[in-house]
Design a protein that fits this description.
The chain is mainly α. It has helices spanning 2-9, 23-32, 54-73, and strands at 16-19, 42-45. The protein has a two-stranded parallel ribbon.
Length: 77
């Protein structure tokens, strides 16, 4: 969260990807960093990820690609 917040603060457009286990934590951290309810652009994938095979990780990435692209190309105020 701090990395993407730092990049966004420097004008670098980005988003972070995390598993759904971290939705609430990301929301709280985003608000603590001053991003309000909208938060830092994020994409959440199915949890857990630590024991997934390479093929399963590729499938998660493929499934998240459109959301990631939308997060980094959408206009923000």
């Amino acid at each position: 969260m701090h990395d993407i917040a730092s990049l966004e603060g420097q004008g670098v457009v980005g988003a972070f990807v995390a598993s759904t286990e971290f939705v609430e934590g990301a929301r709280a951290q985003s608000q603590a960093l001053g991003y309000g309810d909208g938060g830092v652009p994020a994409v959440f994938v199915a949890h857990p990820i630590q024991d997934r095979t390479d093929d399963e990780m590729r499938a998660l990435a493929d499934a998240a690609l459109d959301d990631v692209l939308a997060a980094v190309t959408s206009s923000r105020s």
